[in-house]
Write a structure and sequence with these properties.
single chain; about 450 residues; alpha/beta; 7-stranded mixed beta sheet; 5-stranded parallel beta sheet; 13 helices
Length: about 450
């Protein structure tokens, strides 16, 4: 098998890898792009994009339901087959489109699983590639259940491909994936249970707002149970049973069990030891320039690196840092700044910056402004009864340290809060601004006490 030489080899074609490959080729470098599981990565194929397509349809039905008694007559229901066909209208074609763009632009495409054979060499199964620089951007994969019968559980990837919606679904986990998938399934008519191993769900979010969202989802018929670590899964004549808690004493029968307890870096098949690439719990360890701490020829970006936030915009920003460092003789450090993020249930829950407990652990002197926003006219006019907020404000300079919002347009509000934090605009300056009225942006003024 002959060896092909490149300036840059990129493993993974997602938000980080695809960006790195195209920019480096445009800058005149010879580039190989290796992919084995669909071009574009998790986000457009089995993650945020198809999920949001489904969530937006679900939210339309829920908005209609919430408007009963406000002048809207009639009810909506979700046709699962039609919803999935709508989702597939995007996902079924996106990989081929992305691959075609890379090929048209002159990037060398290699289909297969990448496996390092040395510090600068990669075997794709059909070719040996040698690169002056190699970037690992393989993202993450669903965490598998290490319990007896764990093979009976499906992943969130499988859930997004269901041809029919089962009547009874149990989701194992208490984070983004479990809550978002459970919200979709419940709104579409399934009997849904979330079973979480510890007492705290939605850890990246404010505990009080997470509790408020939990209470709301329970009122909508979703069963949410905590402090029940999964013990085993058994197959029965009419489906499956999740056994959870000490000794598996609690039983949860279901037609489908979804393992939704997060994702792990996709490095298991890369043979990183051969490349002398260090990892921490499977994630590639990098320095402040996103270069491997143990192999100077290797960089990494996206969900595969240790210590990063597994978000598409973060992966893209990390890619820009890697691109600069691959093309320049002047290394650039990765700077994140405030990172907004959102849970797309209905209502959505969004956040940026410090949690209240994080501010306390750092010894910050802060003002906490919190409130129930469900009585605001912005929410009353759409029939939304679950809304709230919490701001963490530096007591000395009146600048935001953290913002947490539950309710319609929460994700857009935290984008504005992130901008205020990045530009160091104080709460008092935000309060004095003119905002379009009546709007959710104007509603933010109610928070600036």
């Amino acid at each position: 098998m002959s060896t092909k030489h490149y300036d840059v080899i990129v493993i993974g074609s997602g938000a980080a890898g695809g960006r790195i490959a195209s920019r480096c080729h445009k800058a005149g470098r010879t580039v190989a792009l290796i992919e084995h599981d669909g071009f574009g990565g998790t986000c457009p194929l089995r993650g945020c994009e198809p999920k949001k397509m489904m969530v937006d349809v679900i939210q339309t039905a829920e908005r209609l339901h919430n408007s009963a008694g406000l002048g809207v007559v009639g009810q909506a229901h979700i046709d699962w087959q039609e919803l999935m066909a709508f989702k597939r209208s995007f996902t079924d074609t996106i990989s081929d489109k992305i691959e075609a763009v890379h090929a048209k632009n002159g990037v060398d495409i290699h289909k297969g699983r990448a496996r390092f054979t040395g510090p600068n060499t990669v075997d794709t199964g059909s070719a040996i590639l040698e690169g002056e620089r190699i970037c690992i951007a393989t993202g993450a994969v669903p965490r598998m259940l290490d319990i007896p019968g764990g093979e009976h559980a499906v992943t969130s990837d499988d859930f997004l491909e269901l041809a029919a919606l089962p009547e009874r679904i149990v989701f194992i986990g208490g984070g983004f994936i479990a809550f978002e998938m459970a919200h979709i399934a419940a709104a579409a008519g399934a009997d849904v249970t979330i079973v979480h191993r510890s007492s705290r769900v939605l850890r990246p979010f404010d505990a009080d707002l997470a509790q408020r969202l939990m209470d709301h989802m329970r009122s909508q018929g979703v069963t949410i149970l905590t402090d029940l670590p999964p013990h085993s899964i058994t197959a029965e004549d009419d489906g499956f049973v999740l056994h959870a808690g000490p000794g598996g004493a609690e039983h949860f029968p279901a037609d489908l069990i979804v393992q939704a307890a997060g994702r792990i870096p996709a490095t298991a098949d890369l043979n990183l030891q051969a490349a002398n690439v260090a990892t921490d719990k499977g994630a590639v360890t990098v320095d402040h320039t996103l270069r491997s701490t143990t192999n100077p020829a290797v960089y990494a970006a996206g969900d595969v690196i240790a210590g990063g936030m597994p978000l598409t915009p973060v992966a893209a920003k990390e890619a820009d840092t890697v691109i600069h460092n691959l093309l320049s003789n002047t290394p650039q450090a990765m700077e994140y700044g405030p990172i907004p993020y959102a849970l797309f249930t209905y209502p959505p829950l969004a956040a940026v910056g410090l949690l209240e407990e994080q501010a306390a652990a750092q010894g910050r002197t802060v003002d906490i402004v919190t409130g129930n926003a469900s009585g605001w006219s912005e929410y009353e006019r759409i029939g939304q009864k679950c809304a709230g907020f919490k701001l963490i404000i530096d007591a000395d300079n009146r600048q935001l340290l953290g913002a947490h919002v539950l309710g319609d347009a929460a994700e857009e509000m935290v984008n504005l809060f992130a901008l205020a934090m990045r530009t160091k605009v104080s709460i008092d300056d935000l309060r004095s601004m003119l905002w379009a009225y009546p709007s959710f942006g104007y509603a933010m003024k109610y928070m600036f006490r």
